[in-house]
Amino acid sequence: MATKDTKPAAQPAPSTEVAAPSRTAVTMPMSWKDRMKAVAVKTAEAEAPQGGFISFKSGRMSIGDTLVPGDKIECIIVDYLFHNKYYNVPYNAKNPVPPVCYAFSREELDLEPAEGAEEPQAESCAECPQNVWGSAGNGSKGKACTNSRRLWLLAADALNDPSKISKLDFFQCDLPVTSIKNFSRFVGELPPGMPPFAFVVEMSVKPHETSLFQVHFKPMEEIKNEAALEQLAARNWKNEQEPLPKYPTKEEMAERASGGTGSTKY
Question: I need a labelling partner for 135 at 20 to 30 A (CA). Which of 54, 85, 124, 177 fits?
Answer without folding.
Answer: 54
